[in-house]
Amino acid sequence: MTNQIIGRGAEAIVESVRFCDINMLKKKRIEKRYREQALDSKLRMNRTKTEARILHKAKKVGVLCPVVYFIDKYEIYISKFKGKTLNKLKIKDDELEDMGKMLALLHSIDIIHSDYTRANVMRTTRGTAVIDFGLSYTSKRIEDKANDIVTLMQDLGVGSKKTGIVIKSYLTHGGNKDIIERAYDVLKRGRYQKN
Ligand SMILES: Nc1ncnc2c1ncn2[C@@H]1O[C@H](COP(=O)(O)OP(=O)(O)O)[C@@H](O)[C@H]1O
Ligand SMILES: [Mg+2]
User: Fold this and answer.
1) CATH top-level class for 2-79?
2) Which part of the chain has CATH 3.30.200.20?
3) What residues does CATH 1.10.510.10 cover in the chain?
4) Which residue, by CA, sits nearest to atom 27 of ligand 1?
5) Taking the complete model, does pTM exceed 0.85, yes or no?
6) What is the second-level CATH architecture of the domain 83-192?
7) Which atom of ligand 1 is nearest to the CA of 7?
8) What band does 1 get if pLDDT is binned at 50, 70 and 90?
């Protein structure tokens, strides 16, 4: 098994591995030394399980995302897309529409992505795919869904044409307008706090 590290974030190390003749990714949650060891171990195990479960649920509503091959204590083995994350490319309008549609689908089953930016959406040979559910959780709360919208707006530019396309698609695909309104409230509050 030859491993090649392709990502090292705050939460996890992502390695490209070949196993049983299949190229896949191994995503291992890293230790947080500032946490007590037993608690850290438990949190990492729970988060690993949650990520796998959420990836499975997301596919059931039609969101293209990695397949989970297997799951270990602190790591998941997932399928590898051929492609690039959208932050490395000039994003196209239909990809912005896909971003809105896929977030609406995730929210329809109460999945909060928690890091929904172009860095976690890929242009792949199979279409637009969502990755990195490492901080995801389930919640019905409008505030939590609105936070995904805020993250997205901050990534694409608040009030930009790109953001407009995503939001329109989000609403067309069943996203709730109360969530969008709440996102604007959050942004407004943030601005008042800074002044
Ligand atoms: N399923 C996947 N297929 C192809 N590349 C991936 C996949 N998952 C992650 N990557 C690549 O690895 C990088 C890091 O993975 P990611 O899950 O976003 O973790 P983090 O952002 O926490 O480092 C991504 O930016 C992407 O380039
Ligand atoms: Mg990422």
Assistant:
1) alpha beta
2) 2-79
3) 83-192
4) 85
5) yes
6) Orthogonal Bundle (1.10)
7) 14
8) low
What are the phi and psi torsion angles at 88 (to 5°)? -95, 0
For ligand 1, pick from 68, 132, 133, 151 the residue to mutate: most ligand atoms within 8 Å of CB.
132
Measured over the CA atoms of residue 102, residue 127, residue 56 and residue 49, the dihedral's sign is: negative
Q: Helix, strand, or coil here: 111?
A: strand
Q: Measuring from each residue's beta carbon to the nearest atom of ligand 1, which residues come in under 6 Å?
A: 6-7, 9, 11-12, 14, 25, 66, 78, 80-81, 85, 119-120, 131-132, 134
| Per-residue pLDDT reduced to its tens digit, 71-119 | 999 999 999 999 999 999 999 999 999 999 999 999 999 999 999 999 9
- Atom number in ligand 1 closest to CA 83: 4
Burial 50-59 (b: 16+ CB within 10 A, else e): bbbbbbebbe
